[in-house]
């Protein structure tokens, strides 16, 4: 049987040792199919970012299995493109050079780096800003460069942690449209962390709700809303019902299990 694109099985994670040990993730089990778009939502501190950074290979874990296409994840790798909320561009390099920098590290020759960088700037509609420095770009533009960079080395998966969290509502919506378009054209597998339930429903195939005490998966919702989705779909009863359901699950997950039992 073909393994899932991403497998997270029986994953546990704690920070600190001895009396200062805090259990942050308990028994996380989650498989992502090829091309699936999955959002992680949940109250602050439930471990979404920790889980994403473990999948990125940026943090270790205590127990469990983690693999991409059946191969264990041991460290960061070019099979995973990562986009964070804070713009992680190098300020002394232009938009094009930021992408080329990542590609050079992946071993491409100079001409190929340039060609791929320009192709990806075109993909995020930033060809006209290739030679601008990050300080000359708006927040949305910087995030488009970060997305172009993450896609440029053709990762198997895109890991995104609140990528549009710092943007104003209009720019955020434009970025959601752009991501949907890229996802529809390139059929990527995406694991996406967000606080915005509307965004999660709009973008995802599946929404995974995490709760605290310690961080764990409490509920999963399939988003059976036809694609391609356009803005109007947010007004539909199915969309709003789902949004309400996810909000309720987040509220329930924000109570510690003993509180939930007590009512
Ligand atoms: N390096 C660290 N050392 C100790 N504790 C940590 C560390 N990183 C995160 N934590 C703790 O782990 C828990 C989960 O944090 P995490 O940032 O993953 O949550 P989150 O769901 O992404 O939160 P938010 O939605 O606020 O970003 C929190 O209690 C946090 O204090």
Automatic annotation (TrEMBL):
<feature type="domain" description="ABC transporter">
    <location>
        <begin position="6"/>
        <end position="237"/>
    </location>
</feature>
<dbReference type="InterPro" id="IPR050166">
    <property type="entry name" value="ABC_transporter_ATP-bind"/>
</dbReference>
<keyword id="KW-0067">ATP-binding</keyword>
<dbReference type="InterPro" id="IPR027417">
    <property type="entry name" value="P-loop_NTPase"/>
</dbReference>
<dbReference type="InterPro" id="IPR017871">
    <property type="entry name" value="ABC_transporter-like_CS"/>
</dbReference>
<dbReference type="InterPro" id="IPR003593">
    <property type="entry name" value="AAA+_ATPase"/>
</dbReference>
<protein>
    <submittedName>
        <fullName>ABC transporter ATP-binding protein</fullName>
    </submittedName>
</protein>
<dbReference type="InterPro" id="IPR003439">
    <property type="entry name" value="ABC_transporter-like_ATP-bd"/>
</dbReference>
<dbReference type="GO" id="GO:0005524">
    <property type="term" value="F:ATP binding"/>
</dbReference>
<keyword id="KW-0813">Transport</keyword>
<dbReference type="Pfam" id="PF00005">
    <property type="entry name" value="ABC_tran"/>
</dbReference>
<comment type="similarity">
    <text>Belongs to the ABC transporter superfamily.</text>
</comment>
<keyword id="KW-0547">Nucleotide-binding</keyword>
């Amino acid at each position: 049987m073909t393994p899932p694109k991403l497998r997270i099985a029986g994953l546990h994670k704690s920070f600190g040792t001895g009396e200062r040990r805090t259990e942050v993730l308990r028994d996380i089990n989650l498989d992502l199919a090829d091309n699936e778009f999955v959002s992680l939502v949940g109250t602050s501190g439930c471990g979404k970012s920790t889980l994403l950074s473990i999948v990125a290979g940026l943090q270790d874990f205590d127990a469990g299995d983690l693999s991409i296409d059946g191969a264990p994840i041991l460290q960061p790798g070019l099979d995973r493109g990562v986009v964070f909320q804070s713009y992680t561009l190098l300020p002394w390099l232009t938009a094009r050079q930021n992408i080329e920098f990542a590609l050079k590290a992946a071993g491409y020759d100079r001409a190929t780096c340039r060609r791929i960088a320009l192709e990806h700037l075109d993909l995020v509609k930033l060809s006209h800003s290739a030679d601008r420095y990050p300080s000359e770009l708006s927040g949305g533009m910087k995030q488009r460069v970060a997305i172009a960079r993450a896609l440029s080395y053709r990762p198997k998966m895109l890991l995104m942690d609140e990528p549009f969290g710092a943007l104003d509502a209009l720019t955020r919506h434009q970025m959601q449209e752009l991501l949907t378009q890229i996802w529809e054209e390139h059929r990527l597998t995406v694991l996406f962390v967000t606080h915005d339930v509307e965004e999660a429903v709009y973008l995802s195939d599946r929404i995974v709700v995490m709760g605290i005490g310690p961080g764990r998966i409490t509920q999963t919702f399939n988003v059976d809303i036809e694609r391609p989705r356009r803005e109007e779909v947010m007004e539909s009863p199915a969309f709003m019902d789902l949004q309400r359901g996810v909000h309720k699950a987040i509220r329930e997950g924000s109570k510690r299990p003993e509180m939930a039992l007590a009512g």
